[in-house]
Design brief:
329 residues, Rossmann fold, 5-stranded parallel beta sheet
């Protein structure tokens, strides 16, 4: 099992203790600062424990996002590809960490499904093998899918990949677009994006059921829109079930026209929404880490300015390494 470094703010010590005990009962070795021996040099022992960790589990909360210690420890995990973020009070991860799928455990309580998701996330960053019950399909099926994988990657590398995953029908998925802040620019952009996505939906290119912001509590997926300036914006895709962040990206105006920025936002939101439905509701369900990587690739493939889609190739390869049975529709 994994050697887990637990990063948290001291205000959240009760939640941290509960999570540590749960993971230890599951067989993991958990290091947290209450294990520092008397007389030890605090920062040096933390640095050593971080270096030895197979996974860095960060508990995001209202307090921890303000902690320089927690941010530094999270950055160390991120830079080593070992970060496993977990929100214990619904707080969004700070800038620099929002591209990672954040699990949730209200008050540090891990229900059976949440604990299973956490185990999968830890196994993903540590490269642990899957249980026999989740073994790969038969050899002939892997071979056929390997051919499809090679073809997809080759097309992406050649810049010829025109697959539109949002055309897959997921009619039961309910989507809502809401402003991330109560100021006119964000509200205006959210309304414009809603209109654009509704147009795509009407032409059967999106295949979801859209509801307006007043009914956002009924949505399966939420897209929050933040207009930071006239030429910059950010989109965040969240789960309507638990508000966990699935994907986030900042955008700059492509060619000096607000219409161009809106078009880019609409294309990206449509593709990422379709990819999310595919990754969560398809015949092969992606784990949290693979889904985050897949959504990054989907966003890259929606770029309307640069002709090259080569940056998406390594992302797709990472997804397929994590889940060889998954193939885009």
């Amino acid at each position: 099992m994994a050697n887990v470094f637990l990063s948290y703010d001291r205000v959240n010590a009760t939640a941290a203790r509960s999570i540590a005990k749960t993971l230890e009962k599951s067989g993991h070795s958990v290091w947290w600062d209450q294990r520092i021996h008397g007389g030890a040099e605090f920062s040096r022992e933390i640095e050593r424990a971080l270096g030895d960790a197979d996974a860095v589990l960060v508990l995001w909360s209202r307090e921890s996002i303000e902690s320089a210690w927690v941010r530094d420890e999270a950055a160390a995990g991120r830079d080593r590809g070992r970060l496993v973020p977990l929100s214990i009070d619904g707080t969004e991860a700070p800038l620099g960490f929002r591209q990672f799928h954040t699990l949730t455990a209200p008050g540090g309580k891990l229900s059976a499904p949440r604990l299973r998701e956490l185990h999968i996330a830890i196994d993903t960053v540590t490269g642990a093998p899957r249980p026999a019950s989740e073994s790969a399909p038969s050899r002939w099926r892997i071979s056929l899918q390997s051919v499809a994988i090679v073809a997809i990657v080759a097309l992406v590398a050649a810049g010829l990949f025109v697959w539109r995953p949002w055309s897959v029908k997921h009619g039961d998925t309910v989507l809502s677009v809401i402003p991330a802040a109560e100021h006119p620019a964000s509200q205006k952009l959210a309304n414009e994006l809603t209109t654009k996505l509704s147009e795509l939906n009407a032409s059967s290119a999106l295949g979801v059921r859209m509801v307006d912001a007043t009914h956002s509590k009924d949505a399966d997926l939420l897209i929050t829109v933040l207009a930071s300036s006239a030429a910059d914006a950010a989109l965040t895709l969240k789960s309507g079930r638990d508000s966990s962040i699935l994907w986030s990206q900042e955008f700059q105006q492509p060619s000096g026209s607000p219409a161009d920025l809106l078009q880019q936002l609409a294309f990206t939101a449509a593709r990422v929404t379709g990819c999310t439905a595919e990754g969560l509701d398809g015949s092969i369900r992606l784990n949290a880490s693979a889904l985050t990587t897949y959504l990054k690739a989907c966003a890259q493939l929606s770029e309307i300015v640069t002709a090259s889609t080569r940056p998406a190739t390594p992302l797709l390869l990472d997804v397929l390494k994590s889940e060889p049975r998954f193939t885009p529709a």
